[in-house]
Structures are given as C-alpha cells and as structure tokens.
Amino acid sequence: MFIQTEQTPNPATLKFLPGRDVLGRGTADFTSREDAARSPLAQKLFEIDGIEGVFLGADFITITKTGAKDWFLLKPSILGVIMEHFTANRPVLLSEHADDNAINEDDDEIVQQIKELLDTRVRPAVAQDGGDITFHGFEKGVVYLHMKGACSGCPSSTATLKAGIENMLRHYIPEVQEVRALR
Hints:
This protein has about 180 residues and is an alpha+beta fold. Helices cover about 35% and strands about 25% of the residues. It contains four helices and eight strands.
C-alpha cells in the first residue's frame, strides 16, 4: 500500500491519500479521542501524541497537529496507523453518519439553493485542500457555515469564506447578505 501526502493551505494540517475509499461519500470530523468513538481509525490516530484533529473525507484523511510537534516526527507514525488499519480491513466508521448538507424536502427554496451551490461548487474545491464546509443555517440574510478539516483554523479560510463563498452565494441568491463561520 502506498499512501501519498499533500500539503494543505493550513500549515498545521496534512492530507493523507491512501489510494482507496476512506468514507466513499460524506465526511466525518473529530476533534478529540472521545469525539472519535465511532471511528476505530480516528481513535488510533488520536493515540499519537501531537494529533488534535482527524477529518475523514471520501478518499482522504486530514490530520491536524498541535503547534509543538513537527511533521517529520509525526508522519511515520500516522502512515503506520493508516497502513495497518487498511491492510487489516477494519471499518473506518462503526455507525452511519448524516450528511450535514443533504437537501431535505422541508428545507425552504433558498436553503435548498444554498446547499446545492455548496455541494456543486464549494465542497469539491475545499476537499482538494483536505477540508469541508457544511451548512448550519440561514437566518435574516446570513448563511452560517462550519469549516472542517484543513479549513478549520486555516489562515486563508476567512478570505475563502468572504471573497469566495460569500460573493458566489450573493451573486446567485440575492437574499444572501453575508456568510459567517461557526466556531
């Protein structure tokens, strides 16, 4: 098994590509070992000293480290855990996960349009950088989004949010006045 690594715009985050499906569809974001109870892979990764975030995508794993650790020290352990997990054919998740961006019949038309634009134009682009952006609400002209994986805490995420996503949503949906990230 050959696992590729890619830099992300966030220097504290590295993207690992195992060359096979991780989740296949959707994402899962874990910020602590306790939070990762439904993922044997994420739990094992949190056993490595210096790991503070594990994000699982369709075909990648994004790891966020603490500032005190260097990648050259962490990478061998991370690669070992990922390789051992997949070669042992263990499940990535023990339970199904809900897609935060799924369009529901009871969503109003504006929310459906926002989710559609996020799914088709935004999420594929941020997935290439090892992250995800999920919809959390639309109220009084403000779209609330949650930044995950490499996007969470990334120095350029504010610019992406304001200059990219906000401008695009305002262009296609006049009711959108602002986009805010949830912490």
